[in-house]
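Work Package 3 (structural annotation) set out to generate three-dimensional models for the target panel prioritized at the project kickoff. During this period the team completed the workflow that converts sequence records into C-alpha cells, so that structures can be stored uniformly alongside our sequence database. As a representative example, we reproduce one entry of 64 residues exactly as it appears in the project archive.
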Amino acid sequence: MAEGKGKTEEIGGETILLAMGAEADRKLAGVKEKVREFFMIGDCAKPRKIMDAVYEGTKAGCEI
C-alpha cells in the first residue's frame, strides 16, 4: 500500500511472511554455560541480513 495514497493491491499466495522489527533474540543464550560448544549466529547475535546468518552458520558448522 502506498503511504498516504489509499491505494491497495491484492496478490495471490498461500504463505505470508512478515519481517518486522529488528531485535536480537537471545532466549537461548543461557544455555551457553551448560554445553561444550555454543555459537550465536544470525539475529541471536544482533539484527542483520540473512546472508550474515548463512555465513555465520557455515563458519560454525566448519568449526564443529
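The radius of gyration is 18 Å.
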